């Protein structure tokens, strides 16, 4: 069974942004038309700023988040990850962790040490670190625990069929599980066929 990922607001904001990106790529002006990714990025930044003003946030960054490797580009949040995944046609790899969790730290070290995983992450995935849980319940199909890793297809379907080896924590990986994670990354690289 697969689940569609949803945006933070409960409405399918990411799909709306993707449609706006496609429309933006078709616009003609005095200059070259905006490409889908560039248009979507501009629009997403405006939406994020508007949401922050509505919720009373200052809009300033809370500082750098410790990430599981700096060799590739990480997206800033779940919405941006979904949008980039859909536009670029690469799966989104979502790593849920906590900075104060020894299990998360151990997984981070193992993840960074694995050259094969690093190469696949750089070439084949949109990467997202999540310290805070998104409001999308599809990102916690078997509960809230860290560390856990889920994959989202560019069609915005959470790949709940790609699991680790633990029956009580389906999406958990430990330092000794890097071979399983590499196999699961290979599975996630094979995109779903959503055409009817």
TrEMBL record:
PANTHER family, alphabetized = ANTERIOR GRADIENT PROTEIN 3, ANTERIOR GRADIENT PROTEIN-RELATED
One GO CC term, this protein = endoplasmic reticulum
**Alphabetized InterPro entries for the sequence:** AGR/TXD, Thioredoxin-like_sf
Instruction: Provide an example Pfam family for this protein.
Output: Thioredoxin_7
Biological classification of the source: Eukaryota, Metazoa, Chordata, Craniata, Vertebrata
Task: Name residues in a coiled coil.
Answer: none
The UniProt keyword set, sorted, is:
Signal
Q: Does the keyword RNA-binding apply?
A: no
Instruction: Specify the domain of life of the species encoding this protein.
Output: Eukaryota
What the record says about family reads:
Belongs to the AGR family.
Q: Is Signal tagged as a keyword?
A: yes
Q: What is this protein called?
A: Uncharacterized protein
